[in-house]
Fold these 2 entries.
Entry 1:
Amino acid sequence: MPKQKLPEMMQLEADRMRHLSLDEKEFAQEIRVVMEERRLRTEDQPQALLYEKLNAVAFQVHPYRVPIIGWMTDLQSMTVSDARAWYDDWYAPNNAYLVVVGDVDHQDVFRLAEQYYGVLPARTLPVRKPQDEPPQAGIRRLTVKAPAVKAPADLPVLMMAFKVPVIRHVEQDVDPYALEMLAAVLAGHDAARLNRHLVREQRLAVSAGASYDSTSRGPGIFHLHGAPSAGRSRGELETALRAEVARVQEEGVSAEELARAKAQLIASQIYKLDSIFAQAMEIGQLESAGIPHTMNRRLIDKLQEVSREQVQAVARKYFGDEALTVAELDPQPLPPNPRPRSPFVPRH
């Protein structure tokens, strides 16, 4: 957006915050678009479907068990009155973050925010009831058979989700930074352990990875995932992924390995700042998670401070079966007359 249009955009968005018009006919059209988007991005994508089912099993109480786009039954039963009630409850200036990134003067932005948003009264928000996830008491497993949900798959897939902590106190926390480095050691670059051992050397998998987000607002999950090679089973891949974590538990990581993982991870944190959009997303995500965006550089410093001993410690602490959920995609032969895959629709 040209910066000279910022005042106009601020005015439009402020107006939308309290004076949105929800037309029943337009809602009926848009909800069909959202349904089609769900088919395209989840129901016709086996791995996305598996990830959705994994979250629904890993979380029993927390809202993370519900997909952002909603279940199809939610969309089919939603009415314009439901949307209006949600809008009236939650769309308020005291329940929003306004992020502006670009070639602007911050004092000008503050004046515009005061001019257009300052006149909007704060609203009493609904009371947020606790939805804390209870401790998991043992391993959970699920299998998704693709054709049963009309999502043809070519390869089996395995996903393992371990419940782990996330950053709540930037300075005091230690384990979330060590978990970030563990993910980087396992899968932070092409020569990282999972790709090197499982894909290139053992040829056990066609892909293998690890992922973790330390700045989640809700409960944290450390994922291990992959697709076994032809002739190899999901069970073999699970055993191999567990063995890679066990190696870190028993032997730790080398200084050179950790240094490379740090360089790759920290570089990715810095390079993403080349994108205006990525900067805005970073600021908004940190603030919504309760972390001041001004602490961003400190987060990088904390990653640089992680020691080999801390990486080994979190590998030993968080990767038992008591907080593990395992999801498997079991590809089946296609039905005789499969439903055509959904065409592309614009993303909301």
Note: Confidence is low (pLDDT under 50) at residues 343-348.
Entry 2:
Amino acid sequence: MRIARLKQWWNSGVHRVRDEVDEVQDELEHTGLRWRLVWLVIATYLVVVLVTGFYWSFRPPLVSLPQVQADVLRQSEIVSPPLDITPLGAATTASLIYIAQSLWKKPGGYLYNDLTPPGIWLDDMPNWEYGVVVQVRDTCRVMREHLALRPSGSEDPDLQKAESRFQFSHDSWLIPSTESQYREGVGYLRAYLHRLYDASANQVAFKTDAASLDVWLARLETRLGRLSQRLSASVAGEGIDEKGIALRTPWLKIDNVFYEARGSAWAMVYLLRAIEVDFAAVLTDTKAGSALDDAIHELEASQAPLYSPVVLNGSGFGLVANHSLVMAAHLSRASNALVTLRRQLEQMQKAAGE
């Protein structure tokens, strides 16, 4: 009797243990399935973000000046005058509008102020954007202070408002966002462009004399020189100079400088093409068109595709290229071409004064 009870107790205990083991196995199977689903979602998200970030890293292609003007006129609802007569300053203003709005019309929109992936993980395209922003700011200032200065000496109100909007912080995310301020700046540029095309508009000016062009070229030359110097600093000596500035660009900043220079050069291509149209009379008088063509050619060459996934920083005659020095060479030659052009303008001004 006792043996039977003991056997029954043993069997019931074995069954309980087996039931508990089966329950634990079921829980592990369900838990493992949940974890697999979690990892699948994370992996899918990362793939989508990486592909999106790769697509957002493509810069806008270079298009012809007639296409730029046609697009801007259509968006601004401006009808070209009879015989397709383009007022002076229209090419420059249309190019400036096109450059500025490319910041948010390109893939991914404006990325410098992004706080979420993949924008926050990207640094090449945001630095490219900053290079474009610098050129927009410089051109607005030159137009306000010199090119569009009225005979009375007063500044154009639309250009004043446009420049103030573009001087807004380039990394503001909210209240107000950078994009909203830059869009307002483009709106004021469109208002100025409308007045250029309106024959009845008063107090609208755009000076195309040699002195005004020289001021603008001096600003472009200065920017090119500074960018070339910063790019060349990728292989400079160690230490700091007398002003406390590092002689050599830190390794993690090399690609930032490269893409900022690339963005500035991209914008300068459009601006120099606009100079060819708006200042055609001055360039013909000085026979300086070849120097300007050389500058445009070098800047266009700086926009060649970069086939390496990273910006390489080789030294000497080694196996690895140095993309920063290649870019610096193009910008230096463009700067030298502008120096030649300015000398020719200076000679023309001296001859006119005699």
Note: DSSP finds eleven helices and no strands in the chain.
